[in-house]
Design brief:
352 residues; nine-stranded mixed sheet
Length: 352
């Protein structure tokens, strides 16, 4: 049995903490915020990816596809099934052609059927697919329940450095945007691409209510059912990003800082909603009926230099005999990552 500190109370840190505690280790989970899953884990498109979104990265598609079952087995109560999902290939400026997308789906063995939904326009191809969403409120509740059952010591509002954790035999860093806050000066400190993003919450027109539609593969839009609220959340490859930077730490414009990780903000002082709506009109005939309810803001963090493939790897790294890091932006791979972390710690415990 090891005394383990896990830093980062997003879905990856929380799941790793449960996995380690269930294996018999004493685990303390540190989260700098006031609640778990309150940053990027709780502010996204809430899509349980199965790979359809990544026609230029077979590795990301297959890892998403293969991880879905483990996420569903652990967090099934948060999974929202029965949502109609459609992926469309834009008729202009798509980096993936309709033919290439179909070949990709066949190669990765992703179920699909060609459709012509009346609520989508401006696409060369549309396919109905088998994919689900997750309810962020239900997911947070399940995470808390599992942490309590596993007797994980959760410490909210505590921002720690590696030097504060000398008493622990193993330290797992799953801090996402704040990775370098912990790892500065270590061999695994690295540059990331930080994006201050807006997720727009809307009251959708009847034609897309309760549906999820993704337009690929370029500077386009998506709309997904927002949990079980009856609302929808929108993303856009370009308009969602208010500020982007590459480096060790995120650059946050002062006007955006007060908006970050506050949940849905009604009438935010800054919003790109008009751009979202105007861009959506190319693909959704009823886009003018979209009603802005509010917006959520967070920092999305990805590895730089991967725009050509849009690859989104899940990285679990045994840095040395004491330190393990976890970095990923794909919620659905969290259980597999946690199992990998637990295997590393078990191997070390056996060795000693």
């Amino acid at each position: 049995m090891k005394l383990v500190a896990v830093v980062g109370g997003g879905i990856f840190g929380s799941t790793a903490a449960v996995e380690l505690a269930s294996a018999g280790h004493r685990v303390v989970l540190y989260e700098a915020g006031t609640d778990l899953l309150s940053s990027a884990s709780g502010i996204n498109q809430y899509r349980l990816h199965r790979g359809y979104h990544y026609p230029r990265s077979v590795s990301t598609a297959t890892s998403s596809r293969d991880a879905e079952r483990s996420f569903r087995s652990r967090y099934g109560g948060a999974v929202v099934d029965g949502i109609e999902h459609v992926y469309g290939i834009a008729a202009r400026d798509s980096l993936t052609s309709a033919e290439a997308f179909l070949l990709f789906l066949e190669a990765v063995e992703l179920e699909h059927r060609i459709v012509e939904p009346p609520y989508v326009q401006g696409v060369e191809l549309a396919v109905a697919v088998e994919e689900s969403l997750f309810d962020p409120v239900a997911l947070r509740a399940l995470v808390w329940e599992q942490l309590r059952e596993a007797s994980v010591d959760v410490r909210l509002g505590e921002r720690v450095a590696l030097s504060d954790l000398d008493a622990y035999e193993v330290v797992v860093v799953a801090a996402y945007t704040a990775m370098n806050d912990l790892l500065a000066g270590t061999a695994v400190e690295r540059d990331y691409q930080f994006e201050v993003v807006e997720k727009v919450v809307v009251r959708p027109p009847e034609s897309v209510a309760g549906r999820s539609v993704v337009i690929l593969d370029g500077p386009f839009t998506c709309i997904d059912a927002f949990g079980r609220t009856g609302l929808s959340v929108m993303g856009h490859v370009v308009h969602a990003i208010h500020h982007a930077s590459v480096g060790r730490f995120a650059e946050i414009p002062p006007e955006l800082a007060p908006l970050l990780d506050r949940g849905v903000i009604e009438r935010p002082p800054l919003t790109s909603f008009p751009r979202f709506r105007d861009a959506a009109a190319e693909f959704f005939p009823d886009a003018t009926e979209l009603e802005h309810v509010g917006s959520m803001f967070t920092i999305r963090t990805v590895l730089p230099g991967l725009d050509a493939t849009d690859e989104r790897p899940t990285l679990v790294t045994a840095v040395d005999e004491r330190l393990v890091t976890v970095f990923s932006g794909k919620v659905g791979t969290c259980v597999r990552a946690a199992e990998e972390v637990a295997a590393i710690v078990a191997e070390r415990a056996h060795a000693t």
